[in-house]
Design brief:
The chain is of the alpha/beta class and 353 residues long. It folds into two domains: 199 residues, FAD/NAD(P)-binding domain; 99 residues, FAD/NAD(P)-binding domain. Helices cover 23% and strands 23% of the residues. Strands 1, 2, 3, 4, 5, 6, 15, 16 and 17 form a nine-stranded mixed beta sheet that branches. A five-stranded parallel beta sheet has the order 7-14-8-9-10, with helices on one face. The structure holds flavin-adenine dinucleotide (FAD).
């Protein structure tokens, strides 16, 4: 069955919902197609102890403030899922869960969006598929030789499944630090944290609020045609959220430099010494989930699709939302995506009306 729409949004996480909010306000006929069977985007898949790095008041989509979570300054992932589910209902956003889009292609003056359950003909498409479904694992020597368990951030749930084991956590970003802290706090896991370069903790008083202020300053500078202020990366890599700070201060978070290779039963360090391991948790990041856009052949040299703001340079009917700073400062955060979504819908309004 083919449906005709003004706009199709692919992905119903926070970015897709923010787009939906602005499309609704502009009176467009639109659908949000989401591969997950339930609301919440990637937040519903995060590990058990995960808390946000920003307070609720700094984590809201347009129109509706995230309520505080009782007893928590930094809400947990379940609270975010509830907020997104409520947001979807509150604005009666037409989200079709369990609808995974296989491809978007050009067809007779429209964009054809194909999913297993149907086809949508759209005048414009907003792609908001995030990166959770594309975990990145680096090509480290010996990865195929290691006989223990290897998992990525996306598969990690809690220390309970590693009790009595030696676990190596790889990655110097927030996920690596938080998962290493989670395992170390538990006390029943022998954890070694490994980072490519010495970990760079942000000052203890810097959380998502300050990060957002930095991103806002960057956006203002870019909007005004001034020099790029460099965004949040210049401040450090790891937000010292309370569990990370506690583990670090207790001496439980001492990172070792990256090992040289994996062996059958562990790792070998640069000096030739070996450490046995039952599991390696790769907290090594993500890549944008863009395979559904492959038929349009838009990819640039770094695997991203070149954009001006959110608009694909070679396809003005396609906008990309979320993903990372390359689609707008703080576009991949709850508080930042509202502004980018508004700009995208404004451009689409100009194109279609
Ligand atoms: P997602 O949440 O990944 O949603 C994408 C949706 O698209 C999913 O529902 C998926 O099913 C769907 N989808 C994917 N492919 C298809 C397809 N082909 N067809 C149909 N649907 C598809 N941000 C903050 O603001 N504060 C924080 O404290 C914070 N903490 C974070 C902690 C971690 C560990 C991580 C990984 C990120 C954190 N972020 C935080 C960043 C950011 O808010 C999240 O990454 C956010 O989930 C991105 O939202 P999104 O809507 O772009 O993507």
């Amino acid at each position: 069955m083919t449906h005709d729409m003004d706009v199709v949004v692919v992905g119903g996480g926070q970015a897709g919902l923010a787009a939906g909010y602005h499309l609704r306000r502009q009176g467009f006929d639109f659908a949000v197609l989401d591969g997950d069977p339930a609301p919440g985007g990637s937040w519903q898949h995060m590990w058990d102890s995960l808390h946000m790095f920003s307070p609720a008041g700094y984590s809201s989509l347009p129109g509706h403030l995230m309520p505080a979570q009782a007893g928590e300054t930094y809400p947990n992932a379940g609270h975010v899922v509830n907020y997104l589910a409520d947001y979807e209902k509150r604005y009666t956003l037409p989200v079709q869960h369990g609808t995974r889009v296989r491809s978007v292609r050009r067809d007779a003056g429209r964009l054809l969006v194909e999913a297993d359950s149907g086809t949508w003909r759209a005048r414009a498409v907003i792609s908001a598929t995030g990166s959770w479904s594309r975990p990145f694992l680096p090509a480290v020597p010996g990865r195929s030789v290691f006989t223990g368990r290897q998992l990525h951030t996306v598969n990690y749930r809690s220390p309970a499944e590693f009790v009595g084991q030696c676990v190596i956590v790889v990655g110097g970003g927030n996920s690596g630090a938080q998962i290493a802290a989670d395992l170390a706090h538990d006390g029943r896991v022998d954890v070694t944290w490994v980072t490519l370069r010495p970990p760079r903790f942000l000052a203890d008083d810097i959380d998502g609020r300050a990060l957002f202020d930095v991103a806002t300053a960057r956006r203002r500078a870019l909007d005004a045609g001034l020099t790029d202020t460099g965004g949040v990366a210049s401040l450090g890599d790891i937000v010292a959220v309370p569990p990370v700070r506690a583990a670090r201060d207790a001496g439980l978070l001492k990172a070792k430099p990256m090992f040289g290779r994996l062996t059958a039963d562990g790792v070998q360090w640069a000096d030739g010494n070996r450490t046995g391991a039952d599991a390696v948790v790769w907290c090594t990041g993500f890549r944008p989930a863009l395979s559904h856009l492959a038929p349009m052949d838009l990819r640039g040299p770094r695997g991203h699709i070149p954009t001006n703001g959110t608009r694909a340079l070679d396809e003005p009917r396609l906008h990309l939302l979320g993903y990372g700073d390359w689609t707008g400062p703080a576009s991949a955060t709850l508080i930042g995506v509202g502004r980018t979504a508004r700009d995208a819908v404004r451009e689409i309004t100009g194109l279609l009306t």
